[in-house]
């Protein structure tokens, strides 16, 4: 007999939001995570305004803001020492860099308040399979207690090294191997900007990111090229520091900064989609769809896929047929996520503009008349610059600017 409607493996962005949504439907949900909560996980925490809108829809935004995270209202990009700047979104909206120790715990606290059960320090060791479908899983607590749990569905929200995906043999497609190593650290004392501003700095074939978190607390990240990985591997703290100091704006702002803890990093993140369902199982978050972190959209996408999955599972729990319901979920996930996937791959693959082009850029920036002309010609050439999906997204965002959005106002 089933003890639970749903057993969710992993309790962070994907698992926490799914647990919250299913518990609010009145389902009987158990979440198991091997980590001790509250705890941080590897992330630079950026959430764009659409992702902030998703937190609002979940009803958790106020609790996250209460932890002191700054509303990021400006975005700017540096190419060498040329700076492009604009609003993060329409008036009243903002992006956010909530530290995961806060975000993931707030999600799980809300899920538990809504009725979900949560066991941290509990590892899922394997699945129970009756030969036709997954029926449950074997759990082991940190204290060594092992037990079997039965559920109508087992959901892998267990991240980019998903064991659930491996155990069920979820088919991978559109896969692209890891493109760039990424390193990051938390800093105190970076010279702040009056309005919290997300900053990207391109130069030396690397991308540096400055993510404003709380007053006096920022996250700095860098994506390098694969051929530079050896330099980082031998002494990544020193390599990180010397790379950042080559960027004039970063060097200036970091003058009085000090690092909290260690520099962390990965050799690269694979990119893939996986079939997200099968008999008795489903996948959400990085377990089912993974990409390079350069576009800072993994957390928001994980939450959005959990919204789609919660809706599909809700229909199935209420009597809809499994196959058409889950196939529609699969199709919708891919339709919604593929433009960002393509955009992330293109952005991550892009190399620097060369010194001659950078000199030209500086010449353009010296002349307001040329800038204005450039703005017009950029707009005129948009249809040829952008794929149909990107053009659609850009049109959608431009409508939000024309009519200020309500999505993330608070
Ligand atoms: C360096 C780096 C920087 C990033 N920066 C950003 C960013 O700025 N913005 C952004 O949106 N995204 C970023 N991402 C991506 C983002 O972190 C992920 O997309 C997001 O965490 C996915 O959430 P998830 O819940 O699917 O998986 P995770 O956050 O990985 O959570 C999975 C959970 O499952 C648990 N688990 C795994 N196996 C088991 C098991 N067998 N039993 C029990 N529990 C298990 C783990 O303990 C973990 O808590 C970054 C990623 C990296 C690596």
Low-pLDDT stretches: none
Radius of gyration (Å)? 22 Å
CATH topology of the domain at 4-45 and 99-178 and 271-348: FAD/NAD(P)-binding domain
Distance between the termini: 45 Å
Inertia-based shape: globular
Q: What can you tell me about this protein's structure?
A:
This protein is of the alpha/beta class and 410 residues long. The chain has a domain at 4-45 and 99-178 and 271-348: 3-Layer(bba) Sandwich (FAD/NAD(P)-binding domain). 39% of the residues lie in helices and 26% in strands. The protein has 13 helices and 18 strands. The chain has helices spanning 13-24, 49-58, 61-65, 100-113, 163-168, 229-234, 236-245, 248-253, 298-317, 322-349, 355-365, 368-385, 388-402; strands at residues 4-9, 29-32, 74-79, 82-87, 117-119, 122-129, 134-141, 146-156, 172-176, 182-188, 197-203, 206-214, 217-223, 258-266, 271-274, 277-278, 281-283, 289-290. The strands form three sheets. Strands 1, 2, 5, 6, 7, 8, 16 and 17 form an eight-stranded mixed β-sheet that branches. Helix 1 (13-24) runs parallel beside helix 4 (100-113), helix 2 runs parallel beside helix 9 (298-317) and helix 9 (298-317) packs antiparallel against helix 10 (322-349). The mean pLDDT is 93. Flavin-adenine dinucleotide binds at residues 9-10, 12-15, 32-35, 41-47, 123-124, 157-159, 163, 182, 184, 266, 269, 285-287, 293, 296-300, 302.
